[in-house]
């Protein structure tokens, strides 16, 4: 037989007490199970290691299913997530858990007309009372009237302030586990939203504006802060690396990847692209539905280092299946990392990137 380009598949009967690491390493042998294994091994062996700055984008309804509390928060506390770009909806529904509200696992085959009459909201097979929305909205609006919110800010500062209030609320009610927003506040992890008006949080921001609140969300701050985080991930010695982990696609994925074109295309700074690219998605690039497309296409934009294509993996599967497996595998296999607390370094990074950009403009004149 000629030269092979793979490993022999040597199937063995599965045991009833198989652990998650053995399950993934030994039984995820082909198709998207093999891609998921590659993600788990890449993250645990190379990405969740010292010297790598890890950005995570989050789309889809992950937090209503509880994954903000059950998976993402533990990864954040272990130092494996350094900054987050999320849909506003994920952050909004995460607040339900921080506020101690009840969501229920049900079935997708319910009568939605009957649910409407019963004031019950459905997110596929998750249901909860309409009052969950109303009470969460009331908490947000009350919080946004605080003096600390009465200014122009980016979404990282906005979510940090909101996280402070929800963290205190959790402490007062004696919560056993923290929601994602509270955990990000406590760990100094900046959380961005690429479309701040596109969620119930943004809707409540708009409502308090009608009442005369001075809060203004400036997306330009986010564009420059995230670009600066990616740029300074290299470190002073140039040995650091940048990783992009994308759960789903959409605007958060593109916002995470556009940090690189912002650096070299717009700001004129030398940049190679992210060193690691990991995505879990069920979308396809050929229909235009896979925002940011696949790693090789991202190379053409300068979003991914062309020399790092070997360290890119796309797994086409349901994120609700992949995320708990990835979390369990990596928490088992990796030593916790010191928290980078990038939130506290935002202003410094912003000033540095501004200085470099203005210096480039002067050189061009």
Structural description of this entry:
The structure is a single chain. The protein is an alpha/beta fold and 365 residues long. The chain has one domain (46-364): Deoxyhypusine Synthase, CATH 3.40.910. It has 15 helices and eleven strands. Strands 7-2-1-9-10-11 form a six-stranded parallel sheet, sandwiched between helices. It has a three-stranded antiparallel sheet with strand order 3-5-4. α3 links the parallel β1 (52-58) and β2 (83-86). α2 (31-47) runs parallel beside α14, α10 crosses α12 (259-266) and α10 crosses α15 (346-364). The radius of gyration is 21 Å and the shape is globular.
Which secondary structure elements does this structure contain, and how are they paired or packed?
Blueprint lengths: L19 H8 L3 H17 L4 E7 L8 H11 L5 E4 L1 H11 L5 E2 L6 H6 L2 E4 L2 E4 H15 L7 E2 L1 H19 L6 H8 L3 E3 L6 H11 L5 E2 L1 H14 L8 E7 L2 H8 L1 H8 L9 E6 L13 H6 L11 E5 L2 H15 L12 H19 L1
Parallel strand pairs: 1-2, 1-9, 2-7, 6-8, 9-10, 10-11
Antiparallel strand pairs: 3-5, 4-5
Helix pairs in contact: 2-14, 3-8, 3-14, 6-9, 7-8, 10-12, 10-15
